[in-house]
Amino acid sequence: GSGEFLIVGGRPARYTRRLAFAARHLSMTQHPGSRFGFLLAVLGAVGFSFKAILIKLAYPYGVDAITLLALRMGMALPFFVALGWADRRRREPVPLIGRDIELMLGLGFAGYYLSSYLDFLGLQYISAALERLILFAYPTLVVVLSAIFLGKPITLRAIGCIALCYAGIALAVTHDLQAGVGRSVWVGGALVFASAFSYALYLMGNGQAVGRLGAARVTAWASTAACVLCLIHFAATRPLALLIQPAPVMFLAVAMALFSTVLPVWMISEAIRRLGAGPVSLIGTLGPVITIFLGWMILAEPIGLFQLLGGALVVAGVVLVGKKG
Asked: Which among 8, 47, 176, 224 would be 20 to 30 A from 304, CA to CA?
């Protein structure tokens, strides 16, 4: 408290950082706002994890991927528009220029439209647990894409983390190959991997947009663009009458829009504001574990040793690739 400790050994910066870390940790565990932020981060991870379960529950009623996606995004659209409008009312935003609008459209296309569509298609073929494990590997794709397009070097440690992730995915795929049809696993796995690739592209562009326009604004209008693109896709390829689905499908679509789309987006944003991105990212690693458990409990998907080991390796690889040396 007096400050003498900070100059022991002639390395004040090192001990300042340690003391600051201890203070932050103490604050995180004791401050009511931080506890609420932790709760929001956990609930956000649970909400996102439920998405695959809700999709799998809807498919037996005969609804196809684009119709289900259009229902989800159409119901979420008013909330994203409201989020963008509220952000505009709350502060004086930087005016949007033509390049910003193009970037928003690109982010909406890659991050929320194409990625979601490929994910919905993939879930027609593979288990919810395998889908979440493959999708969760997107940080490793960001590392590789950053090296290719931005010239950022890949360290030996990063290579080791990437190897951990894909060894885990290989184990999970082996589990599903033993339990199901081989071709379905490969087709579904490829579609979900393409979804993760599309989301990684979104993340690379997202950093440029957020720095200029703000996170809430980018999330709101990129999501709005994605919702419109999904509805255009549906209108161009399906009769509008398909929007009238059996009551269980409509209920699942509402749950997907609210509890696995809109609310988790808000919860994660609020948790990041209260805790910071690092702790929220670590809490997000609960996602694959939650999905494996929910798939077993609700969908009766079998859990095997290979799947558990694979999940552990994927989570470990993502946590390590996200940590700074």
From this structure: 47
